Each structure stands twice: as C-alpha cells, then as structure tokens.
Amino acid sequence: QVQLVESGGGLVQAGDSLRLSCAASGRSFSSYAMAWFRQAPGKEREFVARITWIGGSTYYADSVKGRFTVARDNAKNTLSLQMNSLKPEDTAVYYCAAWKGDFRDYAAENMDYWGKGTLVTVSS
What we know:
With 124 residues, the protein is mainly beta.
C-alpha cells in the first residue's frame, strides 16, 4: 500500500516557477515507478513526466520537455516536479501516481496508486 499526498500548487503568473511535491507513505516506495499527470478543466487526464524506481531515467511529455524536471528521493519517500517558465496552458490539477508494472506502460489506467491532486493556476 502506498498513500500519496501532493502539495505546492498555487496561483502564479506566466513565466514563473513552481515546485510540486508528493509525499509517499509505505515501506516500498522505492519499488514503484512514479509519474506526474495533470488534468485541465474539461479535458482528459494527461501524462506529464515519469521516473524510474531509483531515479536513473526520466521522461517527459513534449509539452513540458525542457521546462519541467521530475526527481525523487527514496530516502525521504518524496517525488518532486520543478516547473519553470510556466504557461497558462499548464493550468491544471496535478497528480502524482505510482505503479509497479512495466515502466513503458505508463498510461493512467495502469497506475496502482494516485494522490488527490494539487491545483496549479497560471495567469497570463
């Protein structure tokens, strides 16, 4: 069992930076790959970034590549998402998720655990 709690969302202006955190409880955090998803109003939940079990590899959606950085600290059971050069289209509820399956199978329906999300609003 893994419980995930996101924090760090808020209202920022375009061009600003924001850092999201995801605190995980449970002993087996390091055995899960982790991901960030987001869902804008009226839209489907979409993949943002993912990271392997020990943090050796990271992958990003094209829309955030070069602006967002995902990282994890297995000693502290935390996942983070550093978001720079934010745009109004980044406005969404951001969720962290964990899964134990194939790292390539990162579709939302394959996630084993979800947090409740944190809202990021970027004004123009």
